[in-house]
Write a structure and sequence with these properties.
Oligomer: single chain
Radius of gyration: 22 Å
Strand content: 25-35%
Number of helices: 9
Order of helices and strands: HHHEEHEHEEHEEEEHHHEEEEE
Helix content: 25-40%
Strand order of the largest sheet: 3-4-5-9-8-7-6
Bound molecules: biotin
Number of strands: 14
Length: about 325
């Protein structure tokens, strides 16, 4: 999806009215083509003022994650530089995996959708992804790392989201092991990482991030109302999703480069420091087994060290945690 040519032109004119004639000349198109392009721009949600004898002026942009909006001033060198935008899709993770099969997406390529019709959560759950309310994105990476680092890579994504939200909004989210982000005990972000490859080397990693941004309480379905939150509920104001997505791409890139250069120590340090889990009594569902105990630590391998009621210390590497009250 390319930036409409008249948009770029109107943007460059800032607050000035530009006549159809001037635009037609500058863009080497007919005046009828300018008019058609302006109509198209309005269909995309841009407000364009048109005053007889003065011309056109860009008044407002829509709340959409169009690639040209996200990529303008995007301070990354590879994450989000290739962007696949959908107004709606089944799941951005599915689209990313499809791309990996049918094309050669660049390192850091990302899929973004305004809404997902079949958004996927962990453990086969659904992920509620209403239109225009959140950030539903999947980032494609090819880390030259063993599959065993998978747990740590999903923790890396959680740390990146935390840093991005802090940078863009000033809000301090906490990390519920392994990779949920909470505010005031409510889940604001979930991460679903999917991988392909051999034991000794990951062929690809799709990092799917679902960040609730502008929902208000009533927007959540009944069954989520007690547990889900959004950045808007946390901040008390609605937030710019473009700014957040730019920060997210920047922090994913920075964390990823940090891991490739220095390993996972710094990431794990953040995960421990901003943990909602450590010291808490909790239940972990890991496959068929359910364990209850107190979270004593997060190891250098990313595993959660749980002290069971028997006193035994066990480490779990994935699963669903429920904090006990
Ligand atoms: C969870 O259960 O906590 C993980 C939720 C992950 C949701 C995101 S939204 C973007 C990406 N596409 C999907 O279908 N799921 C992930």
């Amino acid at each position: 999806m390319e930036e409409p040519r008249v948009l770029k032109f109107l943007r460059d004119c800032d607050d000035r009215f530009v006549s159809g004639e001037e635009m037609a000349e500058a863009l080497s198109i007919s005046r009828a083509a300018v008019w058609k392009d302006i109509e198209n721009l309005r269909r995309l949600g841009y407000a364009v003022a048109a005053i007889p004898n003065r011309g056109y002026r860009l008044v407002a942009k829509p709340d959409c994650l169009y690639p040209w909006e996200v990529q303008a001033d995007l301070a990354t060198s590879f994450v989000g530089r290739e962007l696949f935008y959908f107004r709606e899709t089944d799941s951005t993770n599915n689209q990313a995996k499809k791309l990996l099969k049918t094309a050669t997406p660049a390192e850091g390529a990302a899929v973004v959708a305004e809404t997902q019709l079949a958004g996927k959560g962990r453990l086969g759950r659904q992920w509620f992804s209403p239109a225009g309310a959140g950030i539903w994105t999947s980032i494609i990476l090819h880390p030259a790392l063993p599959v065993a680092d998978m747990a740590k890579l999903t923790i890396m994504a959680a740390v990146a989201v935390r840093r991005a939200v802090l940078e863009a909004t000033g809000l301090e989210l906490v990390i519920k092991w392994p990779n949920d982000l909470l505010w005031a005990g409510r889940k604001v972000c979930g991460i679903l990482a999917e991988l392909g490859g051999e034991v000794d080397r990951l062929a690809f990693l799709v990092v799917g991030i679902g960040l609730n941004v502008n929902q208000v309480a009533e927007d959540f379905p009944e069954e989520l109302r007690e547990t889900a939150g959004s950045l808007r509920l946390a901040a008390g104001r609605s937030l710019d999703r473009v700014v957040l997505l730019q920060a997210l791409f920047r922090q994913v890139e920075a964390c990823y480069l940090q891991v490739l250069k220095e390993g996972f120590a710094g990431i794990l340090e953040d995960c421990r420091r901003y943990s909602a889990t450590l010291g808490q009594r909790l239940t972990v569902r890991e496959g068929a087994r359910t364990l209850t105990g107190v979270a004593r630590g997060i190891g250098d391998d990313g595993g959660l060290q749980l002290e069971l009621t028997t006193g035994e210390l066990v480490t779990v590497y994935s699963g669903d945690t429920t904090l006990s009250v």
